[in-house]
Amino acid sequence: MLTWLEQFLVRYPELALFLVIAAGYWIGSFKIGTFSLGPVTGALFAGLVVGHFAHVPVSGMTKSFLFLLFLFGVGYSVGPQFAQAMKRGGLQPMLLAVVVCVTGLVTAIVAGKVLGLDPGLAAGLMSGALTQSAAMGTATDAINGLAVPEAQRALYVSHIAVADAVCYIFGYAGVILWITVVAPALLKIDLRDEALKLEQSLGMSRSKPGLASAWRKFELRAYRLDAGSPLIGLTVAAAEARGSEHRVFIHRIRRGERAFPSEPGSILAPGDVIAISAPRQIIVELVGARAEEVEDRELLDIPLISVEIFLINAKLAGMNLQEVSQQDWTHGLYLRSLTRGGQELPIAPGIVLQRGDILRIVGPEPAVENAAKMIGVIVAPSSSIDFVVMGLAIFLGGIVGVLVSFPVGSIKIALSTSVGTLLAGLLVGYLRTLNPRFGHIPDGAVSLMTSLGLAAFVGLTGIHAGPIFLSALRESGVALLLGGVVVTLLPQVVGFCFGHYVLRMNPILLLGGLTGSQTVTAAMAALQERSGSPVPVLGYTPAYPVANILLTTWGSLIVVVFAA
């Protein structure tokens, strides 16, 4: 049976790849606390097992195709926030990411030289310890360009997977431990207390409904005002002003048999039935506890829609939510969510908007349509992909990567097709903030490119390394593990000191920035869990795109250094 399976996998390598992907996602789904291998590393280990069991042929073109799709998808998705990272509050986390990434590269080079590693082992040490699987791809690309015998190149590529597998687990767990336990102890802070202080500085409140919650939770109700209602005699504008911090709106009024839209100057009279939206407890406080709720279908027949709007208005970028909420065109609107770079941000008065943010707005249809014109464009669900832009961008990016080179000492380093494609994705992603209709790729397609592309590439790398994994592990396993511990922790220590003593960052934003600087999303999630707050994401989002690009690029650079 086992012999038949081995022969089957060798004969049908494409099916072996699908087996590795499925096994990788299954392995990556297991969690111990907040720690999990994730699908990409799961695919690496699955590939190593399959490759050790059967010598499955691996197509170099297939690997390159999948990896270029992944890189373009990454660039496309982080392009909008990368272009904004240097503005306002994003500058400090961005600088932090640069320091952490450069320290990681230097530490990996020093560790590799001390241990006497070849280019493949050095690249795998770095990619695993810094948990940047994409660096395996750029390193593979660089190794394939070395002027060494084919057998030597194949061995180096196999070594990347070996070293990455050895170093990845601590690279992942080490950052979580540092961020949630060690660093807070060094700062002498309680994560929950510190997060609460930051929330309060942003205008968030956990104890009572404020702008943050009122923008997300509302009800549309109809009430008949009796003579004792505190709203009698007030204009609509004055009545709404009583609950302005909770975003209270009176949409329509019924007076006798006539129902009409409210106007700011309309005076409320006894017996009026008003259609009012706000959090329910605020409505009761405003209209009076004895106000009669009315089931008035005609009055409440207000077409409400919920849409996602892509922010491109340069005048809004840089304004905080409090300032935006005071604009006349926001009357009657509620903000359900705010997303930046795929991460949902907390909603609070002090949160500053950036170009490329996605706002989910709910409210009356005319008001929402008018707001869309002020904010940017509505992100309409679409399954179409601009293959012309995608294909040409990858092609032209690859050409630039091959032609552009720069000297480092006596060495001339080319960008490579991998880095060129990543930069092409960044450019298209940025141009999307100027014209969202340009180069449209649905979120689902981008997710497929990034998740499946990288998992399949890494799985193929594991299959390729499977036959020599155990022997290479016996030769270098302990040394690689110890080297990986240093490469994981030293950038965090240096980044911690730089962020705390030089940049003087808020502790919660510093910790969030450190997770983004080594692209460990699980560490950010663990930090949010420990602090009981979503605010660490404000440090994570500016650092992540910068780190993603730099750490991916380091794969090419470290190979050139060790091949010299």
Detail the topology: elements first, then pairings.
Layout: H1 2-11, H2 13-28, H3 38-53, H4 60-84, H5 91-115, H6 119-129, H7 134-144, H8 150-187, H9 191-202, H10 211-214, E1 219-224, H11 236-241, E2 249-255, E3 258-261, E4 273-278, H12 280-287, E5 292-293, H13 297-300, E6 304-311, H14 321-325, E7 334-340, E8 343-345, E9 358-364, H15 365-375, E10 376-378, H16 387-403, E11 405-408, E12 411-414, H17 416-434, H18 443-465, H19 469-502, H20 507-517, H21 521-531, H22 537-563
Antiparallel strand pairs: 1-4, 1-5, 2-3, 2-4, 6-9, 6-10, 7-8, 7-9, 11-12
Report mean pLDDT, rounded to a whole number.
84
Low-confidence stretches: 207-216
What is the correct CATH architecture of the domain at 211-300? 2-Layer Sandwich
Report the structural category.
Answer: alpha+beta
Give the count of helical stretches: 22
Measured by DSSP, the beta-strand proportion falls in 5-15%
Q: The biggest beta sheet, please?
A: 5 strands, antiparallel
Q: How many angstroms does the end-to-end distance come to?
A: 47 Å
Strand order of the largest sheet: 3-2-4-1-5
**Topology-level CATH name of the domain at 211-300:** Alpha-Beta Plaits
Would you count the extended β strands for me? 12
